[in-house]
Specification:
This protein has one domain: Lipoprotein localisation LolA/LolB/LppX (outer membrane lipoprotein receptor (LolB), chain A, Clam). The chain has helices spanning 2-19, 25-33, 106-120, 123-129, 152-155, 194-197; strands spanning 37-47, 55-64, 68-75, 79-83, 87-92, 98-101, 130-137, 140-147, 156-163, 167-174, 179-188. Strand 1 and strand 2 form a beta hairpin. 28% of the residues lie in helices and 43% in strands. The longest helix has 18 residues, at 2-19. The protein has 201 residues and is an alpha+beta fold. The radius of gyration is 19 Å and the shape is globular.
């Protein structure tokens, strides 16, 4: 009996050590804001109903607090996305870039702000648009976002973010029962080089 009591007490100690330090959304936002620049490689897999295999792509991203988000898919084809508070620009291969602003496509531009909010854990923006569940086990946190307003709740079932020091994974489940799984690796936070600054222009 004494042996079982010791095991039980040890389990309780592990439980409270794991969950008493649960991170808050405000703390997560502060953690993200510590780095003015975050670079990473990414792999993306889209699982679409009716297709036997996922659509796999890879690339690189740079998130700058001042300049916005630069996202470049390199395989299976080159697609570049640039976003800041004023506009979103998307180009595929050598085609003419498509420019999206709050004036010409307000609904799509809203997704720009939401995507930035997800990458930066923007507390106000996330709380305005999602029901939020934030949990942490040891140092690994999970942020579950469930849309509560149209049109988001007509498109997404939920968005799940996982990470530790940096954002490591985003899983998007949509209303068509498709799923997008994005993993991030090789994070770097050194200042932008001149050639990297030009990527945002």
């Amino acid at each position: 009996m004494k042996k079982y009591i010791i095991v039980f007490i040890s389990f309780l100690g592990l439980f409270f050590a794991t969950f008493s330090q649960a991170i808050t959304l405000e703390e997560l936002q502060q953690q993200f804001s510590k780095n003015e620049i975050v670079r990473s490689d990414f792999t993306q897999d889209r699982y679409i109903n009716g297709l036997p295999n996922s659509l796999h792509s890879t690339g690189k991203m740079i998130l700058s607090q001042k300049l916005g988000l630069w996202w470049q898919q390199s395989t299976p084809f080159v697609m570049t996305l640039k976003m800041n508070q004023q506009r979103m620009e998307q180009s595929i291969e050598d085609q003419k870039p498509q420019i999206i602003t709050a004036e010409n496509q307000p609904q799509l531009f809203q997704f720009n702000h939401l995507l930035t909010a997800i990458f930066t854990a923007d507390k106000k923006m996330l709380e305005d648009n999602f029901d939020i569940t934030l949990t942490q086990q040891n140092r690994q946190w999970t942020l579950l976002l469930q849309p509560k307003l149209a049109p988001l709740n007509k498109i997404f079932k939920q968005i799940t973010l996982n990470g530790e020091t940096y954002l490591q994974k985003i899983i998007i489940d949509d209303m068509q029962n498709d799923k997008t799984d994005i993993s991030f690796s090789n994070h770097q936070t050194t200042p932008l080089k001149k050639n990297e600054q030009s990527l945002f222009k």
